[in-house]
């Protein structure tokens, strides 16, 4: 049972004008990505910037990484910026290994302040 608890992903969405901030907590892994992807994708047509705050995310597997890449691609197709905030060491390493770190970049580098 403790393994199942560790696999839980929770997230909340905060809107501020044309920006949506998605605060994630837990693990973005196989079996937890479907609702996250669906709800974030619904934000794309009605926002200019989607910021995914990963400060409380413990782990991302290949399915979670694929979800972030698909959301990034969908956002670009709809003219929406898609940024990751507070990359943890594990995700930063995965993004470096897959040459995706420069694609996602952190929002602090782009002048977006999240209060």
TrEMBL record:
Boundaries of every STAS domain copy: 9-115
Annotated Pfam families: STAS
Annotated CDD domains: STAS_anti-anti-sigma_factors
Top-level taxon in the UniProt lineage: Bacteria
Protein name per the record: Anti-sigma factor antagonist
Coiled-coil boundaries: none
Family membership: Belongs to the anti-sigma-factor antagonist family.
Alphabetized GO MF terms: anti-sigma factor antagonist activity
SUPFAM superfamilies on file: SpoIIaa-like
